Amino acid sequence: MGTVGRVRLTRLAVALVTALPLVTATASASRSPERPAIALTDVLPAVAEANPAPGDGFRLTSGTVITASGAALPVAGQLAEALRPGTGFPLPVVADGGARAIALVLEPGHPDEGYRLDIGPAGVALRATGPAGLFAGVQTLRQLLPPEIESTSPQRRRWVLPGGTIMDRPRYAYRGAMLDLARHFHEPAEIRRYIDQLGRFKINHLHLHLSDDQGWRIRIDSWPRLTEVGGAPGTGVGGDGGGFLTKDDYRQLVRYAADRFVTIVPEIDMPGHVNAAQVAYPELTCDGVAPRPRTDMRVGYSSLCVSADVTYRFAEDVIRELAEMTPGPYLHIGGDEAMSTPHGSYLTFQKRVLPLVRKYGKIPYGWHEIAQSPSAAGAVIQFWGRERSSPSVATAVAAGARVVLSPANRSYLDMKYDMLTPGGLAWAGYIEVRTAYDWDPARLLSDVPESAVLGVEAPLWSETLRDSTDIDFLAFPRLVAIAELGWSPRSAHDWSSFRARLGAYGPRWIRDGVGFHRSPQINWS
């Protein structure tokens, strides 16, 4: 058995052994008709404002209905589907239900993605300006009911929502996660499963890293060998990651994500990280000779030929085809670790390629190295460094760029939790849950004002990943820490509160089959 196989078995064994006490506790709790009441503030991520009204909760019964109309109907349907299995109640979605209703209402006056949730004995009213706000409110409402509410068989218990009012809104517009498909390909079903979990924590962007030295994972019709060669069996780190997304696969993922108010952000990395493309098309090298395929983890050795016209024909074709099937506003062109591209050539490349993204109606997005280029004005810059200042990013911000923060030593989900973690890497350090949580996006870069911070993102690189078990173990619970930094107000940032709320969420992950890391920093329920 290879090293990867041993790592996966070790991780599975750890997950099974550590999960047993939690499974036992959960099963015991489900036999009891009562459990300690859930409070309005027991939510991940933390809500902006909560005004409890003890004793004024709303009880779901077999006569409860969900009311909605127009653009609110799809979200109402999702809520009904989530609550029916555990309750056994029909919970019909109707236009007007009178009393005993959970009403989803669209009305003006609420912040973008914000909502107001009023819970009283006679009914529940969830109000927002748009469907995205209703969806965010539904995620909160689901957490205000016990974990068994979404089990696969009805429970005999009282389902009571705590009384009071929540007024909630996001701190930052962009709250993202990244999944690397290039170093190891993840099937559409695995990506959909990840999207489902992202939505639970009000994460609204999924960045897909679709190309790298080890593989090319998205079909481009004008350059078909990219996937025929770069997505073939034997690609990926360790040669164990063949596969790619067809255009239909990609469009279906975009629609699936949009139904959960998650925007897909596609990334094609260039001018570095292009070995897989050059294996497929040797004309993308300066000498016209195909490099050998790479399945190792090294970086920085590949570069497009900046002086060749074919490079820009290639870049434009890829950008055009990606833009055509991506309704979201962003298109990520990478730009990191281009150590084999001379600085002048790098600037020349960005001067020609960043405008191509705008030409096809998208906002250019790239890793923070693109900030070196004057053409990055107006772009989104993803900062992944460990420094506390960045003059080039500050210069780009002064020219109109916005920043998404992904500090590697805080938000990289592929980093190990500690030295004993099976799988993962450690080049940016060990990242336990508190390390992921204890930083403020507004103060990360001393020379970048908070007004320039678009949001935060937690990347998950796949050098050591193979399946959803690996994704779960490295992403959760740390991804929730990043989600709270992106959604909740600075005033709500409190480790003691977060660890308590996170510990109480454990039974929900067990119910969903999410093999999360049982961090010793958390008292799990």
TrEMBL record:
<dbReference type="Pfam" id="PF02838">
    <property type="entry name" value="Glyco_hydro_20b"/>
</dbReference>
<protein>
    <recommendedName>
        <fullName>beta-N-acetylhexosaminidase</fullName>
        <ecNumber>3.2.1.52</ecNumber>
    </recommendedName>
</protein>
<dbReference type="InterPro" id="IPR015882">
    <property type="entry name" value="HEX_bac_N"/>
</dbReference>
<dbReference type="InterPro" id="IPR029018">
    <property type="entry name" value="Hex-like_dom2"/>
</dbReference>
<keyword id="KW-0378">Hydrolase</keyword>
<keyword id="KW-0326">Glycosidase</keyword>
<feature type="domain" description="Glycoside hydrolase family 20 catalytic">
    <location>
        <begin position="348"/>
        <end position="489"/>
    </location>
</feature>
<feature type="domain" description="Beta-hexosaminidase bacterial type N-terminal">
    <location>
        <begin position="42"/>
        <end position="168"/>
    </location>
</feature>
<dbReference type="InterPro" id="IPR015883">
    <property type="entry name" value="Glyco_hydro_20_cat"/>
</dbReference>
<feature type="domain" description="Glycoside hydrolase family 20 catalytic">
    <location>
        <begin position="172"/>
        <end position="340"/>
    </location>
</feature>
<dbReference type="InterPro" id="IPR017853">
    <property type="entry name" value="GH"/>
</dbReference>
<dbReference type="Pfam" id="PF00728">
    <property type="entry name" value="Glyco_hydro_20"/>
</dbReference>
<dbReference type="InterPro" id="IPR025705">
    <property type="entry name" value="Beta_hexosaminidase_sua/sub"/>
</dbReference>
<comment type="similarity">
    <text>Belongs to the glycosyl hydrolase 20 family.</text>
</comment>
<feature type="signal peptide">
    <location>
        <begin position="1"/>
        <end position="29"/>
    </location>
</feature>
<keyword id="KW-0732">Signal</keyword>
